[in-house]
Amino acid sequence: MVAGICAGAVAAAVLAAGTGGAHGYWMRTDARFAPPSALVPSAAVTYDMALVPAAAWIEVSQRTEESGATTVKLRVDGLKPGHEYGVHVHQKPCAADPAAAGGHYQHEKGTDEAHVNAANEVWLDFTADDHGAGAASARHDWGFRQGEASSVVIHDMPGTHGTRVACFTVPFGWTAGTS
């Protein structure tokens, strides 16, 4: 089974490489969730196995056009059926401590109502279906600044507040026009 896990990790890394340059940036990556203490570490970490069980699956893709407009898509499977989740792009990579992912990535930084909203952040809230699957997409006319978007955090409820129940480190990219 270890060979299967390693092969999956290699496939995910190849898909995550993305393309960039004058025509924008594109990438897609996926992983299976594992607890922080797992023998085989994963880029997808679950902190609450009742809501995001070990071996649940996540896929994130990004397409940034030459103009800088960015679309982020999320797909998940194996989560708690019928549950509503809040999902946001965060600033830092995942770690054993849920707080390590930092705050939400913001196009214009700030803490007031004008800054903490779906137009200034990437929100991917969804409700898991009867089988625990879900999907969401967000499109903005702006792109990520280099090195400032590093993960997708799943919260126990939609909106801006809630407990962090899982985290997925994602190789978000940028294009020269979005710095």
TrEMBL record:
It comes from the Bacteria. Residues 58-160 form the Superoxide dismutase copper/zinc binding domain. It holds the Pfam family Sod_Cu. InterPro entries: SOD-like_Cu/Zn_dom_sf (IPR036423), SOD_Cu_Zn_dom (IPR001424). Belongs to the Cu-Zn superoxide dismutase family. This is Superoxide dismutase family protein.
